[in-house]
Amino acid sequence: STEWSMSEETVFSIELDDSAKGKALWQWVFDISDPYSNNIRAKANDFALTEGRHVLPRCQPGYSEGDSIDYQRCTSNDRILPGF
After folding, report:
1. Distance CA 28, CA 48 (A)
2. 9-32 pLDDT, tens digit each
3. Phi, psi values for residue 68, rounded to 5°
4. Which terminus of the chain is more exposed, N or C, with fewer CB under 10 A?
5. What does the pLDDT look like over 27-63, one tens digit per residue?
């Protein structure tokens, strides 16, 4: 049997103004596995900025209503994360 692996990570930065102080920045991370024991960790380029660590994002990535980045108002009810 032959094994191979590959890893690629892209680094980028985002700028936040002073209004972000004391808030929590969330990045979406997905752990993916298939039936062949392949495991992948994917980090999305979607971010949520909430009032603090005690306030979790409510919506699936990319489904925050309007220009809001706090992910508290979703584009539709079927985009609300489980547990809310």
Report:
1. 8
2. 888 888 899 999 999 999 999 999
3. -70, 135
4. N
5. 999 999 999 998 999 998 889 999 999 999 999 999 9
- Write down how long the chain is: 84
Q: Are 45 and 62 in contact (CB under 8 A)?
A: no
DSSP state of 36: T
What is the token pair recorded at 3?
């094994």
The answer to whether residues 79 and 60 touch, using CB atoms and an 8 Å cutoff, is yes
**CA dist., res. 49 & res. 59, Å (int):** 12
- Residue 38, by phi and psi: left (phi above 0), alpha (psi -120 to 50) or beta? beta
